[in-house]
Design a protein that fits this description.
mainly beta; 4-stranded antiparallel sheet; 3-stranded antiparallel sheet; elongated
Amino acid sequence: MNEPGPGGGDMTPADGSMQPAQSYYLSSAQIITGEAKDTYNDFGQPERVNIQPLAAENVEACGRSLSVTLPSKSVVMLRLLPVPQL
């Protein structure tokens, strides 16, 4: 399912799986994106590419499973931390 994302691009789902026998939680999620794939920042011009928090509804993490909906023309940084063992 593709949805409009920041900058008007499509949102594409991406799925991944953690290999270690460890559960993780999402500590933070940030996205770097612009209007088009060749958008750039230039001195003396308004910022066109910037870092923003990735909306919580785009990320689902449960145990060793992770599902992220990513906008086109973006770079995403996810910070996963292990769930403390009791």
